[in-house]
Amino acid sequence: MKKALMLIAALGCSSPGLFADTAAERLEESARIVHEIMQTPDQGIPQDLLNKAYCVVVVPSLKKGAFVVGGEYGKGFTICRRGVGMGWGAPGAVRVEGGSFGFQIGGSSTDVVMLVMNEHGMHELDKDKFTLGGDASVAAGPVGRTATANTDAYMTAEILSWSRTKGLFAGVSLSGASLRPDRDGNKELYGEKLDNKQILMTKTEPPAAARALIAELEKYSMHKDN
Q1: Residue 121 DSSP SS3
Q2: CB hemisphere CA count around 32 (13 angstroms)
Q3: Among residues 205, 183, 208, which one has the least CA distance to residue 25?
Q4: I need a surface site. Which of 13, 15, 122, 173 has the fewest CB within 10 A?
Q5: Which of 225, 193, 212 is nearest to 79 (CA)?
């Protein structure tokens, strides 16, 4: 028991974004991740993909082997467009669990970004749990703001995913990992344990802590119009 408590303490100290922070702080970290990735054109997410995305998922400091043996665990947010030709709505808190996609260059944690590319993938976010590669197809995304996305994998995948470890940003397959609502995180932000469907598919007012993330997405993406 003592060793387990020491491990939890060590993980918490090495990754404050996972255990020691609040939902509001994770939102601020998510905004910073989007900003830093998109500020580097040759290492960013292709512009046309971000413009077409229905939703974005950002998970700061996904941890390897934290409480999920042989897998990953992290907390983050998903945020969707309010509708055709409209801007980004309020974020819903999510938990990522399981999977074993490998961490780049030996990192113990990584930032993860996903783009949900169609309506079916967007509605999978409504569920209590869905599995990447099972309930929704997933593929490693291309890197570079002007990178071509005209390949079968990119054009047919419902979700595209990337990871950033020790400054290295690359497409990565998250097949086998699951996403579920983080109702505790939603309670911190909205005052009650809302399901993500109650947040993502309505005109819920975004909390103040989400302003930076919404601003970054508005800055780097055009409104989807088809």
Answers
A1: helix
A2: 11
A3: 208
A4: 13
A5: 212
The pLDDT score that the predictor gives to residue 84 is: 62
Any residues with CB less than 8 A from the CB of 137 and at least 6 apart, and which? 156, 157, 158, 159
Asked if residues 129 and 67 have their Cβ atoms less than 8 Å apart, the reply is no
In degrees and rounded to multiples of 5, residue 175 shows phi and psi of: -55, 130
Helix (H, G, I), strand (E, B) or coil at 176: coil
Cα separation values, 21 from 13, 26, 32, 185, 205, Å: 11, 7, 15, 11, 23
Q: Is the full-model pTM beyond 0.70?
A: yes
Distances in whole angstroms, Cα of residue 149 to Cα of each of 111, 137, 140, 223:
22, 16, 11, 19
d(CA 128, CA 44): 31
CB 78 within 8 A of CB 21: no
pLDDT, one tens digit per residue, over 127-178 is 889 888 888 888 888 888 766 655 555 667 899 999 888 778 888 878 888 9
Any idea where the domains of the chain sit in the sequence?
Answer: 22-220
What's the distance, CA 191 to chain centroid? Answer: 22
Residues 166/107, Cβ–Cβ less than 8 Å:
yes
Residue 111 reports pLDDT greater than 60: yes
